Automatic annotation (TrEMBL):
Species name: Victivallis vadensis
Keywords assigned: Pyridoxal phosphate
Name of this chain's protein: dTDP-4-amino-4,6-dideoxygalactose transaminase
A Pfam family matched in the record: DegT_DnrJ_EryC1
Similarity annotation: Belongs to the DegT/DnrJ/EryC1 family.
Length: 366
C-alpha cells in the first residue's frame, strides 16, 4: 500500500464533472482576470465565513502582506508572529516593510499569550499581531485580541491552514481586522494552483484592499499609491466555487480521521494533538511528537507511508529573519526535533488510516 502524506488530486477524482464544467464556462466566457467568478467566490466565501467582505488575491503570502499594508503602520514597525510557522508568515511581514518579533507557542502549538505579553513589555513599538492557526488549530484569540488592544496593536489572523476552524462558534478569519487565507493545492480549501484571499472587518477595508491588489489604482491606469499585481484569476475562483460547498463535509472527514488516529495511537510514547477548549479544529495536518522522529519516519517510508515535517526550522533559525527580535522560545525549541505530520486529507480511506496506525504501533512493538 502506498499512502502519500498529501494528495490534492484525489478531490478531482470524486468531482471531475463539476470541475470540468466550471473550467469550460471560464474558457467559453473569455474573461480570465477579476471577472464574475472572482466576484461570486468573494461573496460566497464571505457569507460562508461570516465576515463583512472578502478580496481575492494571487496567493496566501500576498494576502497577509496586503492585509498588513492596509493597516498603514509606520515603516519598520514591529509585528509579533509565532516562531513556528511557514516562512511565508515572516516573509509577508518583511515584504510589508515591517519587522518580525518572534514569540513562543502554547500547549496547542499556537501563539503563546504569555510570550506575546512578554514581547509587548520588551518592544514598545509592536503595532500588529499575526496569530497563526497552525495545523488547523485556532489560536487563543479570546486572549490575544484583548492583549493586543491593551498595547494598541491590530490583529491580522493567518488562516492559511484553518479554513472552517472555529472558536466559540465563529469561524477563523472574522476575529481580527483582517484574516488571510491561502488556497495552495494542499490546503483544506485548495485551488489547482496558487490563490489567496483576505477577509475584512468592514466594507471600507475591502475597497482599500481592492486598490492595493491592483497597482494601487484609484481608477483604471491611475496608481495613487504603491500597490501589487496580485489578483485571483477566474479559473481558480471557478474551481474554488466548486470546492467550497464540500468544505464543511471534508473538514468533518478530517476530524473523523483525526479521532481514528488518536484512538489508535493513544498509549504510545507520542505527543498527540490537543484541541483547544471551545474550538473546532479542522486538522489541516495531524501532527504527532516523537522523540525518535527520524527513525519512525524511515520506518514508515519503508512501508510506503508518506510523512512530512511542518516545519524543520523555526523562523529564528532562518537567515532571512536574522534581524528579527525574539522572546525566549523554549516550547518551539522543544517541539522542533519531534514534530511529524501523518497522512491527512478527506479522501484518505479508513483502511489507509488503519494501515498507518498499525505501522506506528509495530514500530513501538505495541
Amino acid at each position: 500500500m502506498k499512502i502519500p502524506q498529501c494528495a490534492p488530486g484525489r478531490f478531482y477524482g470524486a468531482h471531475s464533472a463539476e470541475m470540468e464544467e466550471a473550467i469550460r464556462k471560464v474558457f467559453a466566457g473569455g474573461w480570465y482576470i477579476l471577472g464574475n467568478e472572482v466576484r461570486a467566490f468573494e461573496e460566497e466565501f464571505a457569507a460562508w465565513c461570516g465576515c463583512a467582505g472578502a478580496v481575492g488575491v494571487a496567493n496566501g503570502t500576498d494576502a497577509l502582506e496586503l492585509a498588513l499594508r492596509a493597516l498603514r503602520l509606520p515603516e519598520k514597525s514591529r509585528v509579533a508572529v509565532p516562531a513556528l510557522t511557514a516562512s511565508a508568515t515572516g516573509m509577508a511581514v518583511l515584504r510589508a516593510g515591517l519587522t518580525p518579533v518572534l514569540v513562543d507557542l502554547d500547549q496547542y502549538r499556537t501563539m503563546s499569550v504569555v510570550s506575546l505579553r512578554e514581547a509587548f513589555r520588551f518592544f514598545a513599538d509592536i503595532r500588529a499581531v499575526v496569530p497563526v492557526h497552525l495545523y488547523g488549530q485556532m489560536a487563543a484569540l479570546d486572549e490575544i485580541i484583548p492583549a493586543a488592544a491593551e498595547y494598541g496593536a491590530a490583529v491580522v489572523e493567518d488562516c492559511a491552514q484553518a479554513h472552517g476552524a472555529q472558536l466559540h462558534g465563529r469561524r477563523a478569519g472574522v476575529f481580527g481586522v483582517f484574516g488571510s487565507f491561502s488556497f495552495y493545492p494542499t490546503k483544506n480549501l485548495g485551488a489547482v494552483g496558487d490563490g489567496g484571499l483576505v477577509t475584512c472587518a468592514d466594507a471600507a477595508c475591502c475597497s482599500e484592499l481592492e486598490a492595493l491588489r491592483q497597482y494601487g489604482w484609484s481608477e483604471r491606469f491611475d496608481s495613487s499609491e504603491f500597490g501589487l499585481n496580485s489578483r485571483l484569476d477566474e479559473l481558480q475562483a471557478a474551481i474554488l466555487r466548486v470546492k467550497l460547498p464540500h468544505l464543511d463535509k471534508d473538514n468533518e472527514k478530517r476530524r473523523f480521521l483525526a479521532a481514528r488516529y488518536t484512538a489508535g495511537l493513544t498509549g504510545l510514547p507520542l505527543e498527540l494533538p490537543l484541541e483547544r477548549p471551545q474550538s473546532r479544529m479542522v486538522f489541516h495536518q495531524y501532527v504527532i511528537g516523537c522523540e525518535c522522529r527520524e527513525e519512525l519516519r524511515k520506518f514508515l517510508a519503508d512501508r510506503g507511508i508518506g510523512t512530512a515535517v511542518h516545519y524543520p526550522k523555526s523562523l529564528a533559525e532562518q537567515q532571512a529573519f536574522a534581524a528579527a527580535s525574539r522572546t525566549e522560545l523554549p516550547e518551539t525549541e522543544r517541539l522542533l526535533p519531534r514534530i511529524l505530520s501523518l497522512p491527512m486529507y478527506p479522501e484518505l480511506t479508513e483502511e489507509e488510516a488503519d494501515f498507518v496506525i498499525e505501522a506506528i504501533r509495530e514500530f513501538f512493538g505495541a
